[in-house]
Amino acid sequence: MKLINYPYKSRKQKVEEILDNTDAVKEDIQQFPRDEDFTYTNGYKAWATSIFVDLRESTKLFTEYDDVEIAKVIRGFTSEIIEILRDGLDDKELKEIGIRGDCVYAVYSTPFQEDIREVATRAFYVNTYMRMLNTLLTNRTLPNIRAGIGLATSETLAVKAGRKNTGINNLVWIGKSVANAAKLSDLGNKEGRGPIVMSDIFYTNMIEIELKIRPESKMSSWFTKPMFEDYYHGYVVINDFNEWLNNGME
């Protein structure tokens, strides 16, 4: 491997340019623009919602089972969750989707409460899919898995970060949405909590729009708010999907 020769003296000026020119942040944008509208000097602030689906006890899983078996499990876990999180959306709605270690995540532009409710529905599909996956794993004598599903929403600043002309860049999400969703996913399916854990802001917006659309809805009864905490947790599935599972997936 060739030794590095980082030109720190000349790069100092470039860093100063970055620090002094990153000030064209556009506030109060209703919805994030497409990725090509982001540059290395601008930024956009709007409502973003994040979902993280995090495997439980992944260290034990990776170390106690055959590696080929685990490869099958992980591929079954990631492929369909990615499909559920991205289905039917373009890059103006789905801003980022990916895998971080043993976690699948997505970030959405959610200017309206209806958008937040739609992200919640995707979480319910993921939770139902986990039941389907474990049934298929059991049929093949492969280890079952559990996951925590974290959801959070907030006004979020998005900036493009990386190195110009290298192709190494990504959007960075500055705000509570992504960080809180990651944190909440770690709480799911632990210590008596349900797999789906959502921030109080996410929950409030979801319930408000749910009651506007369906005044008779009992969705609020599906979730529990622990005392002195700022999140709600619960176990929710998609009825027709779940019934299909109950009937043997035929």
TrEMBL record:
An annotated GO BP: cyclic nucleotide biosynthetic process
> What SUPFAM superfamilies is this protein classified in?
Nucleotide cyclase
Matching entries from InterPro entries are given as:
A/G_cyclase (IPR001054), Nucleotide_cyclase (IPR029787)
Q: Which domain of life is it from?
A: Bacteria
Q: Which GO terms describe its molecular function?
A: adenylate cyclase activity
- Gene3D superfamilies per the record? Nucleotide cyclase
Transmembrane regions listed in the UniProt entry: none
**Alphabetical list of PROSITE patterns matching this protein:** GUANYLATE_CYCLASE_2
What sequence ranges are listed for the domain Guanylate cyclase? 49-185
From the Swiss-Prot or TrEMBL record, give the protein name: Adenylate/guanylate cyclase domain-containing protein
